[in-house]
Design goal:
Number of strands of chain A: 12
Oligomer: heterodimer
Number of strands of chain B: 11
Shape of chain A: globular
Largest sheet of chain A: 6 strands, mixed
Distance between the termini of chain B: 34 Å
Strand content of chain B: over 45%
Structural class of chain B: mainly beta
Radius of gyration of chain B: 13 Å
Number of helices of chain B: 0
Structural class of chain A: mainly beta
Helix content of chain B: under 10%
Strand content of chain A: over 45%
Number of helices of chain A: 0
Largest interface: A-B, 25 and 24 residues
Largest sheet of chain B: 7 strands, mixed
Order of helices and strands of chain B: EEEEEEEEEEE
Shape of chain B: globular
């Protein structure tokens, strides 16, 4: 079974600084996707960034980037120039591609609550 | 705005009562999902549907039933609510099974069972 582990329940960062959120996963599959979702106090789940496992290049979306280490099964999220609006719960998520199966389910980690301090 | 709409947004139930949570999407998505979110446990899949008239069990299906009579709606039912079902429930949808399009989530329903 696939599992996703986020070992940092809470983190804090000063505005304009850089912070890295950790995520590790366990799978025996070779073809999969990894995601980071943001959940602000509004509860809305927002996709931040997506990484395809077969791509070696790390994904980047503006101030958000990932460090994808496939051999180590690690997928960390780096937020540069942190802003107050980045305060949220961040979830790491995993999806295996089963081409013969009915669906590809999204499996979530337990989340990291990030507080950006002014 | 197009998206996923969940009703109600908040609800308090007494133990043993029943209720139905409604999820509606207007994006013509084939796949729909129900998750529950609990502190320290992330989001866990309850049930999902790969098309109109189909349903399947997820990771934590016990105590819940679902129906997908219309493509745009996915209903989650609690026949006899228990305090352990106190949670925030999220509905999501996706165009198909490809991760390229991602999931669209509703804004959640906070359910308290007393």
């Amino acid at each position: 079974a696939q599992t996703v582990t986020q070992s940092q329940p809470e983190m804090s960062v000063q505005e304009a600084e850089t912070v890295t959120l950790s995520c590790t996963y366990d799978t025996s599959e070779s073809n999969y996707y990894l995601f980071w979702y943001k959940q602000p106090p509004s509860r809305q789940m927002i996709l931040v960034i997506r990484q395809e496992a077969y791509k070696q290049q790390n994904a980047t979306e503006n101030r958000f980037s990932v460090n994808f280490q496939k051999a180590a099964k690690s997928f960390s999220l780096k937020i540069s120039d942190s802003q107050l609006g980045d305060t949220a719960m961040y979830f790491c998520a995993f999806m295996t591609l089963y081409y013969g199966g009915a669906t590809n389910k999204l499996i979530f980690g337990t989340g990291t609550l990030l507080a950006v301090q002014p | 705005n197009a998206g996923v709409t969940q009703t109600p947004k908040f609800r308090v139930l007494k133990t043993g009562q029943s209720m139905t949570l409604l999820c509606a999407q207007d994006m013509n998505h084939e796949y729909m999902y129900w998750y529950r979110q609990d502190p320290g446990m992330g989001l866990r899949l309850i049930h999902y549907s790969v098309g109109e008239g189909t349903t399947a069990k997820g990771e934590v299906p016990d105590g819940y039933n679902v129906s997908r009579l219309k493509k745009q709606n996915f209903l989650l039912g609690l026949e006899s609510a228990a305090p352990s079902q106190t949670s925030v429930y999220f509905c999501a949808s996706s165009l198909d099974r490809s991760p390229n399009y991602g999931y669209t989530f509703g804004s959640g329903t906070r359910l308290t069972v007393v």
